[in-house]
Amino acid sequence: MNALPVPDRAYTDHCLELLQTLGACTARRMFGGWGLYLDGLMFGLIANERLYLKVDPITEPGWQASGGQPFVYNGRGRSVKMNYYSPPDETLESPAAMAPWARLALEAALRARAARPASSGSRARRPALKGKRAGGPGRRPTKR
């Protein structure tokens, strides 16, 4: 089994500096890369030493027009395009240049979160089975 390359923390730190106009962003290791978060909301990722930021149908045309490339990975023998695009190269030089693109990514992530249905954790749980129906080791044999 081939090991994934260890992501470069220096590049990740550079990206976090570029995104500082949003607030205190954090990075978490994931799948051989990094997930980028603000207040627990993922809005970007770093894969193969490249920054990608969240897009949605509202913002994707702008990312495409700027020359951004989508994040694509190979899974189960096919290419899968994710809703993340690389920002324009010139934005990688300063937080001020990155700010409008970072804001677009955060807004797309916020819209995606708002569109998600309520989590299943809010549903009422059925009580655990007790007695004969539970079928555990203390179950008594049924007389027939």
From TrEMBL:
The record ties this protein, via InterPro entries, to: TfoX-like, TfoX_N
Protein name as it appears in the record: DNA transformation protein
The chain positions of domain TfoX N-terminal read 17-109
Q: Which organism is it from?
A: Caldimonas brevitalea
Q: Which PANTHER family match?
A: PROTEIN SXY (PTHR36121:SF1)
Looking at the record, which segments are called Disordered? Answer: 114-144
Spans of biased composition, class Basic residues? 123-133
